[in-house]
Amino acid sequence: MLSTFAHRPALLQESLAHLALQRGATVVDGTLGGGGHAEAILKATGPTGRLVGFDLDPEALDAARKHLVEFGDRVVFVHGSFRELGNVLESQGISRVDGVLFDLGVSSWQLDSPERGFRFSGPAPELVPLDMRMDPAAPRTAADLLRDASRDELVGWFQNHADLPGSKRLAREIVESRRARPLRTSADLIEAIDRAGIGRGRRHHPATLVFQALRMAVNDELGAIRNGIEQAIQALRPEGRMVVLAYHSAEDRVVKNAFRDAVRGCVCPPRTPVCICGRQPCLRLVTRKPITPHADEVISNPRARSARLRAAARIPETT
Q: Which end of the chain is more exposed for a tag (fewer CB within 10 A), N or C?
């Protein structure tokens, strides 16, 4: 139900501080969710500031429309991925923006909605579908991926998206299991994980990492982050700020590397005597190390505990 859509924004004050917004600013919120960050941004940029908000989940967009109704036409709601940022801004007649915020990952509401299939814990896992789509209209579910993926593809997802120990063993078990019957529910996948014997003795159930990896594969989240950051850099005005909140190592690694490459510019091999790639530096780091939540925030909002905030600013283009 839309009335229950809730997502407490992590590192809210830190995000606002590093966006360094002025009144009248135009901002992109690439992961609108329930509108928590967006509301604070609109208040900080009022009375004339504008916000373009993206979300793949139509229920999140509907909830955000209700939450942000007081801001009227200052908000543009976009059902889509922030990897489409450039085209959407062009369609809105916006040439440059003052700030961009990406709050990555899955929302608390999505995790707590069994029918969305994002989590394995809770009652009746045999009734929880292996879905995991951010956009319910997307063509392929997690069950589809588990049915069709090769062993090597499964290993790649488990290793690259979740650093999962025992990735090869689990991939082999999934391939064997689906020969008998398809994996359609959370219970099916948990049984395969148990049979593979991975994660024994660890504090957290290994399904946490397995479900994370599959969700990221279903939604091509790492690819979207790379594309989205590239689009955001091109959209930022000089000295415009970009803030990204990541929640686990795979996301944060992509953000860190994308910022590093944009700060460095040239990506030619070290021994190349003269630059042939033509890339120029386009960002400067605002945060040298990621910012993490204070203890008080973690107590009041436990799901913020793994948040990592990185910020960068656009530098003027060179001729």
A: C
Longest dimension (CA), the chain: 62
In angstroms, the CA 197 to CA 211 distance is 16
Q: Which tokens is 46 given? A: 């009022």
pTM of the predicted structure, to 2 decimals: 0.92
- Residue in this structure with the two tokens 């945060």, named with its chain if needed: 287
User: Phi-psi category of 197—alpha, beta or left, where left has phi over 0 and alpha has psi -120 to 50?
Assistant: left
What is 139-218's CATH number, 3.30.70.420, 3.40.605.10, 3.40.50.2300, 1.10.150.170?
1.10.150.170
User: Using 50, 70 and 90 to split pLDDT, how confident is the model at 89?
Assistant: very high
pLDDT tens digit sequence for 6-42: 567 999 999 999 999 999 999 999 999 989 999 999 9
First-to-last alpha carbon distance for the chain, in angstroms, is: 52
CA distance 92 to 247: 31
Beta strand spans in 7-112 (E): 26-29, 50-55, 75-79, 97-103
- The pair phi, psi for residue 169, each rounded to 5°, is -65, -40
CB atoms within 10 A of CB 185: 20
3-state secondary structure of 49: coil
2-109+221-314 adopts what CATH topology?
Rossmann fold (3.40.50)
User: Which two three-digit tokens encode residue 50?
Assistant: 């504008």
Q: Is the peptide bond before 125 cis (omega within 30 degrees of 0)?
A: no
Rounded to an integer, what distance in angstroms lies between the CA atom of residue 105 and that of residue 134?
A: 10
Contact 41, 64 (CB under 8 A): no
* Other residues' Cβ atoms within 10 Å of the Cβ of residue 294: 12
Q: Where are the domains of the chain?
A: 2-109+221-314, 139-218
DSSP reduced 3-state for 81: coil
Task: State how far the Cα of 161 lies from the Cα of 248, in Å rounded to an integer.
Answer: 9
Cβ atoms within 10 Å of 316's Cβ, excluding its own: 9
